[in-house]
Amino acid sequence: MLHKYHTFSSLLKIGSALLSPSPSNQLDAQILLCKAAGLKKEYLIAHHTDQANNLISRRYFYLIGKRRRRMPLAYILGEKDFYNLKFKVNSSVLIPRPETEGLIELALKYLDDSQVFKVIDLGTGSGCIAISLAKSTPKNVLIDAIDISRQALIIARSNAKKILGKDYKRIRFRKFNYLTQEFDEKYNLIIANPPYVPIEDKHKLEKDISFEPQTAIFAKNKGLQYYYAIKNLLLNNLSISGIALIEIGIQSKQDLYEIFGDSFKIDLKQDLSGNNRYLIIAPLS
Question: In this structure, what are the phi and psi dihedrals at residue 71, rounded to the nearest 5 degrees?
Fold first, then answer.
């Protein structure tokens, strides 16, 4: 298989067959060949009959082997696009999902550029939420980005410096566990994509998810563990005119209303697939 007479076209065919029956086998094979060869897709298409040298072939089949073991493509590539930005990712951070971009769109509707506007991103991971907000907002928006993982914060800081340049200082990255620790500041916007998959459902999920940090995915108490912690945080740290934007999963409306409804006004917004995805929370008075 690994000889110098492979063309790009033959490598794609072999890679696609090795990744079958995945529905994305052909696209994955193409992306991994681009990575192995250091070439753009357009070049591969235009030069599909060109011969690939043995080094490219070896790199390619090494990457194919990782994908066959169900390692997520983002981890193999070391990056993931989110909100038209490119974020470095590894197994220390959750892979940013397209659905979470909806949180950014919602947040931009509530930001006020007439005063210092303080934001906190709970469980920042790769920093995709905090950095996307900083990239899309004026300098009056100051952001705290917290996480319990030192390794995640290293990735997030690296992403901030690369994407924001000198503006990365608008984000204060802090190691913090909001399940057990308390803040002493007020925020105009509290935003989070917390762990919300019920830990009881862990065995039902695809193997791909086993590569991601489990503490960023699973929660106890029917997946509601972090929402109870967020409620306590809102009671103490959300300004009287502030707003909280929280991503949700399969949690029922009834459960969410039982947690937040006695102390806050809440509204549910759907994602592009028509699923309840975003919880908008505001003080009652």
Answer: -65, 135
**C-beta separation of 178 from 231 below 8 A:** no
Q: How much is the pLDDT for 83?
A: 97
Phi/psi for 65 (5° steps) reads -60, -40
- Among residues 262, 257, 265, the alpha carbon closest in space to that of 282 is found at 265
pTM of this prediction? Answer: 0.92
φ, ψ for residue 278, nearest 5 deg:
-125, 130
Q: Residue 1: its pLDDT value, please?
A: 46
Q: For 8-69, CATH number?
A: 1.10.8
Sequential DSSP letters for 111-132: --TTS-EEEEEES-TTTHHHHH
Q: Which residues of the chain have pLDDT under 70?
A: 1-5
CB 156 within 8 A of CB 168: no
Measure CA of the first residue to CA of the last residue in the chain; give whole Å.
69
For the chain, which residues make up each domain, given as ranges? 8-69, 80-283
Both tokens of residue 1? 């298989």
- Three-class HEC string of 173-229: EEECCCCCCCCCCCEEEEEECCCCEEHHHHHHCCHHHHHCCHHHCEEHHHHCHHHHH
Three-state SS across 245-268?
Answer: EEECCCCCHHHHHHHHCCCEEEEE
Identify the CA nearest to 59 among candidates 80, 83, 79, 35: 35
**Cα–Cα separations (whole angstroms), residue 140 to 44, 117, 168:** 45, 6, 13
Report the CATH fold assignment for 80-283: Rossmann fold (3.40.50)
Cα torsion through 203, 204, 209, 211, rounded to 10? 20
Question: Are 73 and 22 in contact, with CB atoms under 8 Å apart?
Answer: no
